[in-house]
Amino acid sequence: MTRFSAWNVFRNGLTGQKGWSRQWRDPEPKKHYDVVVIGAGLHGLATAYYLAKNHSVRNVAVVEKGWLGGGNAGRNTTIVRSNYMMPGNREFYEHSLKLWENLSHELNYNVMFSQRAHVSLLHSPAAVDDAARRYNTMRLTDSDGELWDLEKLKHTIPYLNYGPNSRFPIIGAAVQRRAGTARHDAVAWGYARGADQHGVDILQNCEVTGVTRDNDKVVAIETTRGTISAGKVGFAVAGNTSRLWSMAGLGNLPIESHKLQAFVSEPLKPLLDHVVVFGVGGAHFYISQSDKGGMVFGGDIDWYKSYAQRGNLPIVQDVAEAAMSILPCLGRVKLLRHWSGVMDMSMDGSHFICKTPLNNLYLNAGWNYGGFKASPASGWYFADLIANDRPHPVVENHDLQRFERGINIDERGAGPDPKLHG
Ligand SMILES: Cc1cc2nc3c(=O)[nH]c(=O)nc-3n(C[C@H](O)[C@H](O)[C@H](O)COP(=O)(O)OP(=O)(O)OC[C@H]3O[C@@H](n4cnc5c(N)ncnc54)[C@H](O)[C@@H]3O)c2cc1C
After folding, report:
1. Residue nearest to ligand 1 atom 50, measured at CA
2. Of all protein residues, whose CA lies closest to atom 24 belonging to ligand 1?
């Protein structure tokens, strides 16, 4: 595999770009793998990469029903941050952000990680107090965070709706400067290329249609490209987790599948060089500007359960209203595209990286709207779990029994309703 380097770019520029090799192979499935990871989204690909790199487990397949990165991996609004507060989540997301900071070098692939700061708008004294608690916790636990008053916010981001009659008056902001955005496809491609380099087989157009068990053990998976036997199996299928879970004969999960829509506008001249977020009074909105100039934004999930990967007009209206309330200058900007992905919404808004009732089956799911930023750490800890057959202390409470044990990792304090966790 050709490495990316200044010299190789220069050399290929002079020789008609003929010196580049394929980024990953397109192998035929083998009869048996030591580990089969189902789902070639960010989490599945990162898991395979860290299994091979950190744990020298190389007889690994990633099985994907479509094309790699075609699920939520390639549909998200690419926000990366670590402003989490609950024990377990705090350490997990900070580890993830640290992995992001070196990811382009680690993978020798430019994931375009841009630490442009994540700015959460605050609209009431209570929100300022709440943010002070969260951001002080972050500062005390090896992360960064700051509170901006209105004057500083106006100076830094002048185009927000600061008018006296604004729908949601702004009084300040909570800011994480190391947060930002990355290029989602590049992350999927970078992990795929890295995993492939370590010998991992990435099997696309290979849908899992059945899970064969021998009592408490998975012995094989049935796929559209034949039966594959496996020593260990990991589920990393995001919004399709309940389907796979039921194929394994395991009943219900504390997860609901809802769709989340995203939007991009026509390209504009540079307008916003931060990620701006607000959530107040039933409105939820986040926006950034892509390197091509498009305004990339989104809002809440559709509140009914669905596996449909398409948008609808009520959410267009809802999100456009939120956009207008905070950035009225977007009023005449045309919407270029909008789309949707299927979110694995858990009861407390936090994820699962855990063992399951089957001895050699492992679960990675429950990412809500937050799984893009999580993907490096998710792969890192899931690989650690699969290789060592025990959870790392950072994820030991992120299991399916936490509700029975009374463990609280409800980051939003929204209660046991998946729809309310963003
Ligand atoms: C519109 C939108 C905006 C978002 N914005 C953000 C954001 O700004 N920041 C953030 O942190 N997160 C965000 N997210 C969430 C994030 O994208 C997801 O949590 C994350 O991508 C999920 O992990 P994944 O990449 O592994 O999932 P996916 O990419 O969905 O991967 C799962 C894969 O499993 C495959 N699969 C399913 N069933 C089978 C089967 N039977 N056999 C084989 N393969 C199967 C699917 O085809 C899919 O490729 C957003 C999501 C959406 C949809």
Report:
1. 76
2. 41
Atom of ligand 1 nearest to the CA of 247: 41
Phi then psi for 44, rounded to 5 degrees? -65, -45
Per-residue pLDDT, 281:
74
Instruction: Name, in order, each residue with C-beta under 8 angstroms of 164's C-beta and a sequence gap of 6 or more.
Output: none
Q: How many angstroms does the Cα of residue 85 sit away from the middle of ligand 1?
A: 24
pTM for the whole structure: 0.97
Q: Residue 419's pLDDT band (boundaries 50, 70, 90)?
A: confident
CA of 378 to the centre of ligand 1 (A): 13
- Please name the residue whose Cα sits nearest to atom 4 of ligand 1: 76
CB contact at 8 A, 68 and 188: yes
Contact 147, 128 (CB under 8 A): yes
Residue whose CA is at the smallest distance from ligand 1 atom 3: 76
* Distance from chain centroid for Cα 23: 23
> Tokens standing for 37?
């990871």
Parallel, antiparallel or unpaired: strands 60-63 and 201-203: parallel
Is the pLDDT confidence value at 86 over 80? yes
Q: Residues 331-365: pLDDT tens digits?
A: 999 999 999 999 999 999 999 999 999 999 999 99
User: Ligand 1 centre from 73 Cα, in Å?
Assistant: 5
Mapping DSSP to helix (H, G, I), strand (E, B) and coil, where does residue 278 land? strand
Mean pLDDT score across all residues of the chain: 96
Is the separation of the CB atoms in 78 and 181 below 8 Å?
A: yes
Sequence-distant (6+) residues with CB within 8 A of 131 are 120, 122, 147, 174
Contact 44 CB / ligand 1 (< 6 Å): yes
Res 337: pLDDT: 94
How many Å apart are CA 217 and CA 249, to the nearest integer? 12
Residue of 351, 360, 367 whose CA lies nearest to 41:
367
DSSP 317-382: HHHHHHHHHH-GGGTTPPEEEEEEEEEEEESSS--EEEE-SSTTEEEEE--TT-HHHHHHHHHHHH
Q: Which atom of ligand 1 is nearest to the CA of 371?
A: 19
For residue 252, the SS3 value is coil
Give the mean pLDDT of 45-62: 98
Please state, in angstroms and rounded to a whole number, the distance separating the CA atoms of residues 30 and 32. 6
Top pLDDT among 420 and 186 is at 186
Tokens standing for 243? 């389907």
User: Looking at 116-240, which runs of residues are DSSP E strands?
Assistant: 118-122, 146-149, 172-176, 180-181, 201-203, 208-214, 217-223, 226-235
